[in-house]
Amino acid sequence: MDKYRRAHARPGAAPSWAPSTVLVTGGAGFIGSHACVELLDHGYEVIVVDDYANSTPHVFARVERIAGRFVGAVYELDIRDRRALSAVFDRHPVDAVMHFAALKSVSGSVESPVEYYDTNVGGTTSLLRTMHEHGVHRLVFSSSCSVYGDAGAGPLDESTPAHPTNPYAASKRACEQILADVCCRRPEYTVLCLRYFNPAGAHPSGLLGEDPQGAPDNLMPHVAQVALGHSKRLQVFGGDYPTPDGTAVRDYIHVMDTVEAHRIALDHLADAPGMHVFNLGLGQGISVLDVVAAFSEASAKPIPYEVGPRRPGDVATLVADASAVSRAWGWRPTRTLADMCRDAWHFQRLNPHGYAGAERRPNPKP
Ligand SMILES: NC(=O)c1ccc[n+]([C@@H]2O[C@H](COP(=O)([O-])OP(=O)(O)OC[C@H]3O[C@@H](n4cnc5c(N)ncnc54)[C@H](O)[C@@H]3O)[C@@H](O)[C@H]2O)c1
Ligand SMILES: O=c1ccn([C@@H]2O[C@H](COP(=O)(O)OP(=O)(O)O[C@H]3O[C@H](CO)[C@@H](O)[C@H](O)[C@H]3O)[C@@H](O)[C@H]2O)c(=O)[nH]1
């Protein structure tokens, strides 16, 4: 173990296995880029693969500036390209994988279901085959609370039956099933499947945040665009849900808490083989209008909005019972909705046009 991980080792624990090199798929994206910072900050060697379907390579200059260290290597590739992916595993001694790469828009998946299954399920099977060929058996998988579907007002624990209501959620559920089947058949695998509720916010430095390609799909970056004056008003998708104010309720969790959980997950990849599923959320139901009010307060800007029809594939409420992860790892998220709005606004104000214009780093070909 190097000096970083020695400093963060659990007291009394002498793990027989500790990852040193972590492959981050989708590491240029919103959560993946924050995970890179978290990993670099804790001494890990980080290798990234991303095809920039929803991101740009500009992000890595920011990641490295915050961490004060370099990402080990960045490869521009589609994870479904097994030959290219295999070359990355040939070149680097990967100990564990954090698998973020996927398409994530609920409405996009309703419009293009095949694309979503192809990328999310096909990408995961390609990764698993490549990991298998290279003897890599430890994975942290980005799943989603959307697998629960319309399961009621919650809070939902991990035993809640999965009933996805859109192709995106179904593709995540399919990946979970594949991972469970692999773990069942092969005792050398450990998979930590993290079902995030709604990650939001940004790195507190203001250097790193959410910079999707095209118009943002998620609520908070959209609200930030309105606060900036780039959009006239927010379209609220549905005001007739069975919720206190009629707008949809989600459980927002700060992206820094989300990636902290991923880093801590690495310490638990040797605890027990098999697949282990954990919710990541604050356990607080927050409506679209609650987000509007909190962001307006954080930015001191009005957020005009109009209530329109529901968005296809959406559900009324998704709130976590996130106690299992606290019991298992002694960890819980600490940042509030106000923190998420403050940090997202800080990033948007400093980067009104995202990362565009930042220095481009060359991508080695695998
Ligand atoms: N953001 C959320 O609210 C949320 C909630 C639950 C789960 N998740 C999951 O977390 C993960 C990360 O989400 P995010 O918000 O950072 O999304 P994101 O779109 O910002 O990041 C995903 C990254 O994966 C890359 N990618 C997509 N397809 C690829 C492919 N075929 N090959 C290589 N790279 C590819 C994209 O370019 C992007 O950089 C996703 O798996 C998503 O489904 C996100
Ligand atoms: O302009 C907007 C954008 C969103 N919403 C609503 O805000 C809520 C949250 O939307 P969004 O931020 O898009 O989150 P989800 O639809 O919950 O989907 C995100 O969160 C899921 C987990 O809940 C992840 O799995 C998905 O990948 C991720 O896109 C939903 O009710 C939307 O209808 C609006 O009203 N107006």
Task: Provide an overview of this structure.
Its EC number is 5.1.3.2. With 366 residues, the chain is an alpha/beta fold. The chain has twelve helices and 13 strands. The strands form four sheets. It has a seven-stranded parallel β-sheet, with helices on both faces. It has a two-stranded parallel sheet with strand order 7-10. Strands 8-13 form a two-stranded parallel sheet. Strand 5, helix 7 (167-185) and strand 6 form a beta-alpha-beta unit. The radius of gyration is 19 Å and the shape is globular.
Give the SSE map.
Blueprint: H1 3-8, E1 21-25, H2 30-41, E2 45-50, H3 59-67, E3 73-76, H4 82-91, E4 96-99, H5 106-111, H6 113-133, E5 138-144, H7 167-185, E6 190-196, E7 198-200, H8 219-228, E8 234-237, E9 249-250, E10 252-254, H9 255-267, E11 274-280, E12 286-287, H10 288-299, E13 305-308, H11 323-329, H12 337-350
Parallel strand pairs: 1-2, 1-4, 2-3, 4-5, 5-6, 6-11, 7-10, 8-13
Antiparallel strand pairs: 9-12
Helix pairs in contact: 2-3, 2-9, 4-6, 6-7, 8-10, 8-12, 10-12
Bound molecules: nicotinamide-adenine-dinucleotide (NAD) and uridine-5'-diphosphate-glucose (UPG).
Nicotinamide-adenine-dinucleotide binds next to helix 2, strand 2, helix 6, strand 5 and strand 7.
Structure summary:
The protein has helices at 3-8, 30-41, 59-67, 82-91, 106-111, 113-133, 167-185, 219-228, 255-267, 288-299, 323-329, 337-350, and strands at residues 21-25, 45-50, 73-76, 96-99, 138-144, 190-196, 198-200, 234-237, 249-250, 252-254, 274-280, 286-287, 305-308. It has 366 residues and is an alpha/beta fold. The protein starts with a helix and ends in a 16-residue tail after the last helix.
